[in-house]
Amino acid sequence: MAARMNTLSLLNPSHVSLRPRDYRFSHRPLRFYTSPNPNRGALFCTCSTTNGESFVLTTPLYYVNAPPHMGSAYTTIAADAIARFQRLLGKKVIFITGTDEHGEKIAAAAMAQGSIPLDHCNLISQAYKTLWKDLDISYDKFIRTTDSKHEAIVKEFYSRVLAKGDIYQADYEGLYCVNCEEYKDEKELLENNCCPVHLKPCDSRKEENYFFALSKYQKSLEEALNKNPNFVQPSFRLNEVQSWVKGGLRDFSISRASVDWGIPIPNDRSQTIYVWFDALLGYISALSDEQEQPDLLNAVSSGWPAALHLIGKDILRFHAVYWPAMLMSAGLSLPKMVFGHGFLTKDGMKMGKSLGNTLEPNELVHRFGTDAVRYFFLREVEFGSDGDYSEERFINIVNAHLANTIGNLLNRTLGLLKKNCQSTLVVDSTTAAEGNEFKDNVEKLVDKARMHYENLSLSSACEAVLEIGNVGNFYMDERAPWSLFKQGGTASEAAAKDLVIILETARIIAIALLPVTPSLSWRIYEQLGYSRDQFDAATWVSFFFHTDASTTHHQHLMGDTKWGGLKGGQVMAQPKPVFARIENQTEDVDKGVAVGKTMKSKGKKMKQAQQVAGA
Ligand SMILES: Nc1ncnc2c1ncn2[C@@H]1O[C@H](COP(=O)(O)OP(=O)(O)OP(=O)(O)O)[C@@H](O)[C@H]1O
């Protein structure tokens, strides 16, 4: 979806009164309270359904005018971290991504490449799929708006809205930005009618179009937003949305007479469906079963409404205003939440395909590895705010957090275990930590991380996990097991237990950071002597069901993030670094750098990061 921002058409609203239906958002947040049970870490839930609950989340369907860039990757990495976290909670996740492939801009991009639109779309769509593979993106559905099932569902949806009396024909004259794929209000344009997003002049156009009666839904939308303030997140973006709605909704054109590359309007082949009206429906058509005849209600029954639309703030109006109104018109439920994150910027400008000021994710992955890229952007950019990229900061953060705090801690502990205990744990981690407050500290931090993941505060979740690494390092340095081993006797026995404690800490870090760094987490698990199957079966929360006279209660226990996974006798793998430090000749990599400050690369070649074996 391109950053086709803002303006609605300038038509008068059609004043059809709507008997407001109660468009309730079906979001029911999970509520937890801490168990009075001395079994720490046990949580009880007050919701009625938990395990097996489905959680549908989406990224935007990216516009295939050009290959993906770090901005597109950013949303997708964040969505993947959320999807992986929800899976650890035992939810049935349907993670949807895909490509938006119709419209004038695509036809123009294909022509500029000497190609035809479908060939162009195939190529670029594949570039997205390849990048998602390289970034360990665990999507469940990839929808292309040129898929035939999508076209069938768009047409069915259009017919429903038409039958509702919400589509009519009228003339429109205005200034059109092809890059935004949208008519613009003159007052929002720069000199020479230039689009403020793409800095290119808009064309003057006049044509007869089909319109969607958005204005009919003004009141229902206002009510829905008032009743469900969580619908738009972060909360400060809700004010923005409410003021758009209060400012008056105007009907918008949902067809183009001059564009061939699109889905034809049913019963009028002279026009194609406006690319936004088409693309938003990808979130539903993605749910449609491949085997079946495409059918709107069947698709809806496979998981709609979505729990979360994750988008950039550029397309908030489409998701928080147009889309809910379209769904109301078709009599379908609204998504539970729209989260509009900030922009990755370059020199203060939004990084984007149209401006061409993009950062190459492939290059970053090639040089620094997938975990580093995923971790840096999720840890460093507060989710919701803008963030500028700096290579120097990237290297500093990744080295300090992943190579030193986590990787080194594991590596030196395994080294000591090999030297002094034949790489074998002497006792269970539960026994090793008896009467030790350290374990409680770790569990508190894990719970903090869980809470942040649930609130989509991804940077804070990373911070809480890193804090576990910090306390682990502190414990190690304070206890100094290497000198206890030298003393022999009971000191040596205590040192062997200390190593179990640190390794259990590393195990918990691996699961708690798995949503962000899945490959690194697996490498840690492998070092701890686990199989891939054991790693894949890990959970954050496990469920315990019990029934009293009338009700089934769900007790949530902290699954593999609970202390006690490592058992006495377990044999660790041969120690090898789980995260290779990135070498940088230009600076002292461990020095902190001010957040958000961009520092240009000095142009010196950095030694290519070695992907650790198995990465
Ligand atoms: N600079 C960015 N920072 C964060 N997310 C971005 C950025 N650029 C694109 N995205 C993500 O991609 C979505 C827009 O997708 P689209 O395919 O239109 O990319 P685009 O690069 O913004 O396109 P264009 O530059 O042509 O407007 C955004 O809503 C956001 O999810």
From TrEMBL:
- Name one cellular component (GO) term: mitochondrion
The broad enzyme category this protein falls into is ligase
**Positions of the Methionyl/Leucyl tRNA synthetase domain:** 189-414
**EC number per UniProt:** 6.1.1.10
Gene3D superfamilies, alphabetized = 2.170.220.10, HUPs, Isoleucyl-tRNA Synthetase, Domain 1
Q: Does the keyword Ligase apply?
A: yes
Q: Which residues form a coiled coil?
A: none
Q: Which reaction does it catalyse?
A: tRNA(Met) + L-methionine + ATP = L-methionyl-tRNA(Met) + AMP + diphosphate
| SUPFAM superfamilies, sorted | Anticodon-binding domain of a subclass of class I aminoacyl-tRNA synthetases, Nucleotidylyl transferase
Q: Tell me the ranges covered by the Methionyl-tRNA synthetase anticodon-binding domain, including all copies.
A: 431-535
Q: Which GO terms describe its biological process?
A: methionyl-tRNA aminoacylation
Q: Name one GO molecular function term.
A: ATP binding
Q: Name one Pfam family in it.
A: Anticodon_3
Keywords on record: Aminoacyl-tRNA synthetase, ATP-binding, Ligase, Nucleotide-binding, Protein biosynthesis
| HAMAP family for this protein | Met_tRNA_synth_type2
User: So what family is this one in?
Assistant: Belongs to the class-I aminoacyl-tRNA synthetase family.
**What is this protein's name?**
methionine--tRNA ligase
